[in-house]
Design goal:
Largest sheet of chain A: 8 strands, mixed
Largest interface: A-B, 17 and 20 residues
Shape of chain A: globular
Number of strands of chain B: 11
CATH class of chain B: Alpha Beta
Radius of gyration of chain B: 20 Å
Number of helices of chain B: 15
Distance between the termini of chain A: 35 Å
Structural class of chain B: alpha/beta
Helix content of chain B: 40-55%
CATH class of chain A: Alpha Beta
Structural class of chain A: alpha/beta
Number of strands of chain A: 8
Strand order of the largest sheet of chain B: 1-2-3-4-7-8-9-11
CATH topology of chain A: Rossmann fold
Number of helices of chain A: 9
Oligomer: heterodimer
CATH topology of chain B: TIM Barrel
Strand content of chain A: 15-25%
Shape of chain B: globular
Strand content of chain B: 5-15%
Chain lengths: ~260, ~375
């Protein structure tokens, strides 16, 4: 039996594809530059406790590319509209990489519908003197390899990525990722000035071997968001929810569980 | 036909093995490989060659713009054009072109070109390009905005040249409270605008509608013929007949006494250009958003082999013309008739070709080729030939 549904939702003029499954408090998962991908095992696990909502961003995959979409700020405002329209509250907002940047921008702007924020290998700020791979100058195979700690898993993903039916979405995702993050590369110089406004409990989940946004970024976000807590996942690259899905879900469950006890 | 001496100004002393090891002569090829002593000599050699082209009777000299590469040492072509504006006495001075989307202030090109047009008393040809993908890596400009920024910068520059200032301009990428550049261009209403491209359909159609001269870069002659036909077809749709003067083919010509000698002499220098200076990974050439997904897919599908090109390959495909005076005249006439162009943008120096050989080549072209084409226009039914 399917544990999730796939539907199209229109927010004003923009139709997006949304995967949704489970019951409980809403958990909105914002994907990174690679696209929304499949309903992951960690999502199936989280769906046992949460109403997991995984939208495909405007400009990505099967979602519309609206003419107004230029910046990560546009997407942050879009998801605030999204929360309003679906009338969700007490939302646990989770964002990976580019999605983490969107989530942080949204939380800075308006956290009234949020219960918590979780950033996973997130973009959005810049640190000098931290070696980072240039994902726009790597070839496809190298780009995928740089995402993972386990290179056997990386090889399987490389093979899977070569299916021709995925090419259109992959090109669309790459183009929109470039539009949103090419310059300034992967960050908004103004975001760090306002991260202190995030008052909801915040978790920072990072892979120990993240080569895209190394864990120095987790500690930098920790210093900028009041009360934020860092969790480093061992044997893991840039995508903990993919590479260490159980550990990722367990950390998220523990963080949200502890919040409830505290409340 | 008109002949322009097109220079790329390569850093021809570059260590080819080091380029091969780096995978490209662009963006990531460290500038510690640049020796200022040698570079300074090259700048003077190359500028002397341009002045020599003027004396030999070439109709024009061409510069262009590339960044952070041994392929060409002209990131700011206006500086070199300024150096030539008073020493090239007769020929036109073409910059093909400035890469508009890389600019944060397009008014500076309106100003720069207007100065050059005044200095040359109306001999400037104003080229506008988007720049190749590598420039977007090199210059920190978002490739996904390349087309928008080109369109906006072009409109702003042409308005700055043609509408009396001051006026205000508010676009998405550029905003100015006052647009009022001094000087105004010498030519009225403005210098001729030429548009070089690798063959983008949308660029070709736009150039045809605007009646701008279209310049086809480094391509097999059969492809050149197709691109030029696309231009003529679009002109027809726009309600006018395109003249061959609106079409320029960018090529490489090398002339020696015999075919065998020409190929032997040109080989290492041309192969250095094809296999070292020009080489770059797909991700560098075509960053996401630089071109539409359909074009991106075509290029990705076409990229089947990375095998080195031999001089015979590019001669056979009609990318270059190398041979005896007679062979070069025959080929050039054949290609002119096939593709229907009336301007040849000719690289007389290419790759690692040294100064003495370049000058001998220029002299041979001026003496053996130019006079035969001075009054020659494309012959025959171009439309059918291009089918």
């Amino acid at each position: 039996m399917a544990d999730h549904s796939i539907s199209t939702i229109a927010i004003r003029d923009c139709r997006i594809r949304v995967m949704r499954g489970g019951a409980g408090p809403p958990l909105l998962f914002l994907h990174g530059g690679g696209g929304v991908g499949i309903w992951l095992p960690c999502m199936a696990r989280l769906a046992k406790k949460f109403d997991v909502i995984a939208p495909e961003h405007p400009g990505f995959g099967a979602s519309d590319t609206p003419p107004w979409l230029d910046t990560v700020g546009d997407l942050a405002n879009f998801y605030l509209d999204f929360l309003d329209q679906l009338d969700l509250s007490g939302v646990h907002l989770v964002g990976s990489s580019l999605g983490g940047w969107i989530a942080a921008e949204a939380a800075v702007r308006n956290a009234t519908r949020l219960a918590s924020l979780t950033l996973v290998g997130a973009a959005g700020i810049h640190l000098n003197d931290v070696a980072q791979v240039d994902t726009f100058l790597s070839n496809e195979e190298q780009r995928i390899r740089d995402l993972f700690y386990d290179q056997l898993l990386a090889e399987a993903v490389v093979v899977g990525s070569q299916r021709p039916e995925l090419e259109d979405a992959a090109l669309k995702n790459r183009m929109m990722t470039a539009k949103l993050s090419w310059q300034p590369r992967n960050h908004d110089p103004h975001l760090r000035k306002w991260l202190h406004r995030i008052k909801v409990p915040t978790l920072l989940i990072w892979g120990d071997h993240d080569r895209v946004f190394p864990k120095d970024y987790a500690f930098a976000f920790e210093g900028l968001i009041p009360g934020a807590k860092v969790v480093i996942i061992a044997d893991c690259g840039h995508l903990p929810h993919v590479e260490q899905g159980d550990a990722f879900a367990a950390e998220l469950e523990a963080f949200i569980g502890a919040m409830r006890i505290a409340a | 036909m008109k002949f322009f001496n097109f220079h790329l100004m390569p850093y021809r002393h570059a260590d080819l093995d080091a380029i091969a090891k780096n995978g490209s002569a662009w963006v990531t090829f460290s500038n510690r490989h640049y020796d200022p002593q040698k570079g300074a000599e090259l700048y003077h050699d190359y500028l002397d060659q341009m002045e020599f082209a003027d004396q030999l009777g070439f109709d024009g000299v061409c510069l262009n713009e590339h960044h952070q590469t041994a392929y060409g040492m002209m990131p700011i072509p206006g500086v070199l054009a300024g150096a030539l504006a008073r020493s090239v006495k007769r020929a036109k001075l073409a910059i093909l072109g400035r890469a508009l989307p890389l600019l944060n202030n397009p008014l500076m090109v309106a100003e720069e070109y207007a100065i050059l047009d005044n200095l040359t008393r109306g001999r400037l040809v104003a080229g506008f390009v988007r720049g190749i993908g590598a420039e977007y890596h090199a210059m920190g400009i978002n490739p996904a905005y390349s087309q928008e920024r080109f369109a906006e910068a072009h409109d702003l520059i042409v308005r700055a040249w043609t509408e009396p200032g001051p006026f205000s301009y508010v676009g998405k990428h550029y905003q100015f409270r006052y647009v009022n550049p001094w000087p105004r261009p010498y030519q009225n209403p403005h210098p001729p605008i030429w548009i070089p491209s690798q063959g983008s359909g949308s660029t070709i159609r736009w150039a045809a509608r605007m009646r701008y001269t279209y310049c086809q870069t480094l391509s097999p002659i059969a492809a050149v013929a197709r691109f030029f036909q696309l231009y003529r077809d679009e002109a027809d749709r726009a309600g006018y007949q395109a003249s061959p003067d609106q079409l320029a083919w960018s090529n490489t010509i090398y002339v020696a006494e015999t075919d065998e000698k020409a190929v032997r002499e040109a080989r290492p220098h041309l192969e250095a250009l094809m296999n070292y200076f020009l080489k770059m990974p797909t991700e560098m050439l075509l960053p996401p958003g630089y071109t539409d997904p359909a074009s991106m897919k075509r290029v990705r599908a076409a990229k089947v082999t990375g095998k080195p090109q031999a001089i015979e390959d590019v001669i056979k495909a009609g990318v270059v013309i190398v041979g005896s005076p007679n062979t070069v005249r025959e080929k050039l006439a054949e290609y002119q008739d096939l593709a229907g162009f009336n301007t040849s943008l000719t690289k007389t120096q290419f790759g690692t070709l040294p100064d003495d050989m370049t000058r001998a080549n220029m002299t041979a072209i001026a003496e053996e080729i130019l006079p035969h084409f001075r009054d020659r226009s494309p012959q025959g039914t171009r439309r059918e030939a291009a089918e």
